[in-house]
Amino acid sequence: MNVLVLGAGQLARMMALAVKPLNIEIRAYDVGSKQVLNPLAPEQVFGNLTDGIQYADAITAEFEHVAHDVLALCEASGKLKPTSQAIKIGGDRRLEKQLLEQCQADNAKHVIVKDKESFDEALNQLSLPIIFKSALEGYDGKGQWRLKFESQTSQTWLELNEFLKSNAKQGIVAEQMVPFQREVSLVGMRGHNGEIKVYPLTENHHTDGVLSVSLALDNEQKIQQQATEVFTRLTNKIDYVGTLAIEFFQVGDKLLVNEIAPRVHNSGHWTQQGADTCQFANHIRAVCGLPLGNTELIRPTAMINILGEDTIPNQMLSMPGVAVHWYGKSKRPGRKMGHINVSGDSQEQLNQRLSTIADILPDAAFADINAYIKGKC
Amino acid sequence: MNVLVLGAGQLARMMALAVKPLNIEIRAYDVGSKQVLNPLAPEQVFGNLTDGIQYADAITAEFEHVAHDVLALCEASGKLKPTSQAIKIGGDRRLEKQLLEQCQADNAKHVIVKDKESFDEALNQLSLPIIFKSALEGYDGKGQWRLKFESQTSQTWLELNEFLKSNAKQGIVAEQMVPFQREVSLVGMRGHNGEIKVYPLTENHHTDGVLSVSLALDNEQKIQQQATEVFTRLTNKIDYVGTLAIEFFQVGDKLLVNEIAPRVHNSGHWTQQGADTCQFANHIRAVCGLPLGNTELIRPTAMINILGEDTIPNQMLSMPGVAVHWYGKSKRPGRKMGHINVSGDSQEQLNQRLSTIADILPDAAFADINAYIKGKC
Q1: What's the pTM?
Q2: CA of B193 to nearest chain A CA: how many angstroms apart?
Q3: Is the Cβ pair A314, B290 closer than 8 Å?
Q4: Which one of A63, A214, A272, B279 is separated from B237 by 20 to 30 angstroms, measured CA to CA?
């Protein structure tokens, strides 16, 4: 089978690697150059979007910020999975909140802000601190404003108003800031026949607003069950097909949905080593109508992002339980350049390995990651 | 780094898949078309052998039957690993036997046959049954003659003589047939600095002379140690760099070398799921001068070859512990089309899974494999 992926970054690349053994060929639509290319050999160009659509048996996306005309063209072919509606939900916090309300999925108290009146409404309904998030194009902590003290109110409105005026399509979601213990996420798939499989939850750590470490959680049945129920309600509601990730804030024993990502997700990269079938393969299986693979944890596993660096100490390659995944990208500060999956036969062994890695990774680039890992082990 | 692989079959393809996450690019020299291509997108052609040699930081081979002028050209570049001598040993049973003698590696009693005189010598020195194997181009049971009864002697000589006369470079190795209990093989790597790592031995089953099932063996320390010693002596002797496989006949507690393959080997395909670092990645690491990855068994794992078939029942995709690897080849009777790796948390669970698989795989194509598996579980 042939699949076209909208987006030609590391996620499309890892999808291509994951399903090559199933004789499934992936081409990727680069939204920058507007060309279709081979994600495993980007210099190999196959034409434009129309050519890509024609080539494909199925079309999917590696990210939610795809231009709506591109989505419309793909949807018209009848091959797009998930639907453009589902992809748009991930790219617009207003639609996301609407879906959460429809599905009665617990989430932070919020108000949609589009003008001064709704801004005041937000201040009335929510108590400080409030976080304002841009409805469109916000990710990795970008497009966010925090209002902690009343004295910041007018300055905040000035900034928000300027932002809203800059783009008529934009909006703001004002959220009550939640004093959560940690962020966890659930990555799972819904198949074309409604079959649902989810991986174990992961605990996520962020560095400067960007995911930096994910730890697969195996023995947290109570929240695993909550998360799975939310996943099931959400994906059934929109007849979703493919991999989808839900980020949650954990408050006590309760999970509040933070964000939905209608795609493979950074917090699921550990599944390449920690599960029989990784999120990339399972996403493509879903959109191709193939049976989903097993999503159980096969070994305690964690993932460490490599941010802004293009080398790590060579000795890591010889460490048992370590798998290094580079994305073939050129170095830029803070850029997601690759990740390291770490597994062990037991949680104890995994912790030992993580602790050794924290000793090896240079603090210059990995200080926050090393500190977090040391705190866990 | 860039690596050129001599040979553009499934082994080059699996090497390319295995090391893409290390940002290592593989190009493959197709000995048929004499063109260099992308093993992950064979329609992408990059020029001829000279272009390929220039592109590469390191050159290696996926098989031992590479034309000697090609090997010479590659060796002259200073980039070929292992050496052409090592590759030729795998392609010529006379050189192989010579190396085994030099290393005092136990193997079947044998005589090199090049004419009637040495044929008679073989009959004198060996007792029936004798197996005659062509020195060059013999693999998967091809190019072999069996002499079981004295009455077949003149007929056998007629055939061998005709064969010898057909190619002045050919020769025959006459071997005492060994009444062995089973065939096992050891796959391991020697790094550029002499570092050696080996995987657990596998037990191999053949169907019509072609490997069809490999089972990783974890608790057979006595023969594992013997095999590792032979591996070490052989690879040190020829300053080998890369993955190498040794097939053994097991006779009681003793291993006799059957064959050496100076490359990644079908009996090591299980390492894709059963080890942290598979034989393909470790081969390329070795030839690139990178540290070798861990070779310990991480889960009990077995491999089943898919011979001559281009489909298997879809339900296998959803079975826990099952990973299907197709090679993207067109169907031909008996052709190696793909393989299935099967893992379990315990040997017991693996056996249960294998048993289920033997129930699912159609007997029309997998009768012998199913019978072997059922006998094991």
Answers
A1: 0.95
A2: 14
A3: yes
A4: B279
